[in-house]
Amino acid sequence: MALDLYQRLGIQRGASDAEIKKAYRSLAKQLHPDRNKDNPNAAKRFGEITHAYDLLSDNDKRAKYDRGEIDEDGNPKMPFGSGFGGYSSGAGGPQPGAGAGFENFNFGGGDAADLSDLFEGLFGGAAAGRGRAGGPFGGFRQRARAPQKGADVAYRLKVPFVDAVALKPQRITLGDGKTIDLKLPQGLEDGTKIRLSGKGQEGPGGRGDAIVAIEIAPHRFFTREGNNIRLNLPVTLKEAVLGAKVKVPTPEGAVMLTIPKGTTSGKVLRLKDRGFTGKDGKRGDQLVSVEIDVPAHDPELQKFAEKWNAPGNPRADLGV
């Protein structure tokens, strides 16, 4: 019997989000294809536990799964469960069962029945039904169910911040051990999902898809604000007072930036088209917040400050 999603991760129903994440991370380290290149079964298990984590970490999908509304592949279950149940099929043909309702009726062969023909045969269309099928329930017309595709396989990919800004293709290893270069789309955000057609599990109706959820890794000095990125840039007192051209890092390399004379801390300078690319293809900017770095122990600066009396009150707007 196939393992349910909780069994795949080795946890109990009712496990917390933290327990689910901990179990997945532990198994993912053991089963990752990069560590099991000669073990195809490990690659298959890696896909199964990743799919289980993707579904159970989504609170809405997990609730539907726990209620039995969707199966292990995330697909809706048949609304009548295993079939209709007020009838049982014995040697004498269909017989009324003891229970009301339709819980256990089975059409046989696993094929779905055309319910509109069923009701036509039972209510007023019996004669026409006999003409077509030669029996009192000739209104039944069975339809062959289309072969089902294999299950989708979920992956999570952490993309470096600067690669996300530049939309640099990412090399990933799929559950079958194959390596591909994944193209990042415009409008990339945390949680963006990329579907790779035919890269899932094999099934009678063909392969399912791979679904890659993107996580953009934080950067040590860049932060994101919409499609803009922000950088706090330290400058010396001399550069701020007299003005200067200084090197500024961007996700795609350093550029020269002009610091105007008399720049104060907190002033924001803008580098056009250095941010993330939106869905419309337009890029955001890099916002550079100037921070004046005053040395703590500089005798010459201390002597200058002792002699200098600045006019005005910089805190006047604060009412003090």
Please give the alpha-carbon distance between the first and last residues: 75 Å
Major beta-sheet overview: 4 strands, mixed
- Silhouette: elongated
Order of helices and strands: HHHHEEEEEHHEEHEEEEEEHEEEEH
Share of residues in helices: 25-40%
Oligomer kind: single chain
Q: What is the residue-averaged pLDDT?
A: 80
Beta-strand residue fraction? 15-25%
Compute the CA-based radius of gyration.
33 Å
What structural class do you assign from the helix and strand content?
Answer: alpha+beta
Low-confidence parts: 80-142
Query: What is the tally of helical segments?
Result: 9
Biggest sheet strand order reads 12-13-17-16
Total strand count, please? 17
What is the topology?
Layout: H1 5-9, H2 17-31, H3 40-56, H4 59-66, E1 84-85, E2 87-90, E3 93-96, E4 102-105, E5 112-113, H5 115-122, H6 126-133, E6 142-143, E7 153-159, H7 161-166, E8 170-173, E9 179-182, E10 193-196, E11 210-216, E12 222-225, E13 228-236, H8 237-242, E14 244-248, E15 255-259, E16 268-271, E17 286-293, H9 299-307
Parallel strand pairs: 7-11, 13-17
Antiparallel strand pairs: 1-4, 2-3, 5-6, 8-9, 10-11, 12-13, 14-15, 16-17
Structure description:
The longest helix has 17 residues. The relative contact order is 0.08. The strands form seven sheets. The protein has a four-stranded mixed sheet with strand order 12-13-17-16. Strand 14 and strand 15 form a beta hairpin. The protein has nine helices and 17 strands. By secondary structure, the protein is an alpha+beta fold. The N and C termini lie far apart (75 Å). About 20% of the residues have low confidence.
